[in-house]
């Protein structure tokens, strides 16, 4: 992966950028410095590192500087205008396949509305209906998936998780992420796949403590 990052003055000197609070501008620079070669960034880590507030992320999304996919990953939308990476230094993002359908929507100009609420939680709201991929479940009409649906999704997107454990885990807590109802089980499956990636690489399978990870997210909300 390239070790240097650039920022275009056409972006950082624009009124759209300069009218944002300094804290939002600062977060944008840190996200840009820590993004991979395709502009994907795990925003939870950067938010904690910079002590940024959820409102800073909300503003960047509202101003269309980034696209949030879930509670972990976002994409910087002006990435290619800011950065031109030589082919011999370019490393494709591991998220290109994970968010393939979402990227396809963006490339066709179809908005994906996934707002950040006041607590920092990333989730679909009622206004998002009809604006997202038809495969996404509506937040207000969420139905828990069947084992067959999860298996089909995992086969299609090459997600490697313990499906029985996944179902048992969320059946036991009422299909919640932290204290909130799960809004998108497919995004949750992708997160489990990333967190359990050691087993995908052929290493001895070690069950991830997903409850501890969710507790960490709740700590961030405070």
Give a description of the structure.
- This protein has 222 residues and is mainly α.
- The chain has 2 domains: 9-107, Arc Repressor Mutant, subunit A, CATH 1.10.10; 142-221.
- The chain contains 13 helices and 5 strands.
- It has helices at 9-12, 15-18, 22-34, 43-50, 54-62, 79-82, 95-98, 100-107, 147-157, 163-172, 185-195, 197-200, 210-221; strands at 40-42, 66-68, 73-76, 176-177, 180-181.
- It has a 3-stranded antiparallel sheet. A two-stranded antiparallel ribbon has the order 4-5.
- A hairpin with a 4-residue loop joins strand 2 and strand 3.
- Residues 115-141 and 198-208 have low confidence and may be disordered.
CATH topology of the largest domain: Arc Repressor Mutant, subunit A
**Compute the gyration radius: what is it?**
18 Å
Classification by helices and strands:
mainly alpha
Residue share in helix: 40-55%
Q: What is the general shape?
A: globular
Distance between the first and last residues' Cα: 34 Å
Mean pLDDT: 77
Number of domains: 2
State which percent range the strand residues make up: 5-15%
Main-sheet strand order equals 1-3-2
Largest sheet: 3 strands, antiparallel
Total beta strands: 5
CATH class category name of the largest domain:
Mainly Alpha
CATH architecture of the largest domain: Orthogonal Bundle
The total count of helices amounts to 13
């Amino acid at each position: 992966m390239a070790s240097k990052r650039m920022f275009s003055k056409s972006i950082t000197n624009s009124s759209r950028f300069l009218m944002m609070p300094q804290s939002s501008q600062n977060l944008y620079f840190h996200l840009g410095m820590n993004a991979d070669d395709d502009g994907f960034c795990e925003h939870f880590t950067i938010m904690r590192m910079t002590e940024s507030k959820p409102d800073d992320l909300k503003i960047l999304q509202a101003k269309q500087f980034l696209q949030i996919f879930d509670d972990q990953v976002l994409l910087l939308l002006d990435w290619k205008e800011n950065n031109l990476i030589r082919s011999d230094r370019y490393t494709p993002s591991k998220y290109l396949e994970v968010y393939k359908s979402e990227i396809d929507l963006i490339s066709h100009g179809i908005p994906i509305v996934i707002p950040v609420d006041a607590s920092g939680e990333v989730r679909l709201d009622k206004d998002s209906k009809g604006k997202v991929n038809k495969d996404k479940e509506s937040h207000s009409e969420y139905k828990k998936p069947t084992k067959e649906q999860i298996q089909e999704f995992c086969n299609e997107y090459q997600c490697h998780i313990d499906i029985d454990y996944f179902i048992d885990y969320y059946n036991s807590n009422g299909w919640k992420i932290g204290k909130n109802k799960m809004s998108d089980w497919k995004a949750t499956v992708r997160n489990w796949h990333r967190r359990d990636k050691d087993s995908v690489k052929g290493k001895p399978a070690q069950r991830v403590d997903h409850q501890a990870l969710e507790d960490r997210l709740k700590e961030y909300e405070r």
